């Protein structure tokens, strides 16, 4: 692939540990985390960010964000963080 830049990925886990993390996430039905860990596994296997992102069906922007989060915080960086949403208009007594 001409012009594809290699992105340095921090190996927080060994391949075996990464496979175990994927299996554990599957057991507890954390599908979002499984997808993100599979993305990292693709990077470990030598794919570019774009190829790894395409393999799990995400955009280049998302794959860049996931790679950055992985490098900075490991598995915890890939766990989905939900903002909690909008506060209800009604009080509990209403």
From TrEMBL:
UniProt cross-references to Pfam families, sorted A to Z: HTH_23 (PF13384)
Protein name listed in UniProt: Transposase
InterPro entries named in the record: Homeodomain-like_sf (IPR009057)
Domain of life: Archaea
């Amino acid at each position: 692939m001409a012009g594809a830049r290699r992105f340095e990925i921090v190996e927080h886990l060994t391949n075996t540990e990464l496979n175990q993390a994927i299996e554990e996430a599957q057991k507890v039905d954390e599908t979002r985390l499984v997808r993100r860990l599979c993305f990292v596994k693709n990077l470990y296997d030598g794919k570019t960010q774009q190829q790894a992102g395409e393999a799990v069906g995400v955009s280049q922007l998302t794959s860049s964000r996931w790679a950055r989060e992985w490098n900075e915080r490991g598995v915890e960086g890939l766990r989905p963080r939900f903002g909690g949403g909008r506060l209800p208009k009604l009080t509990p007594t209403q």
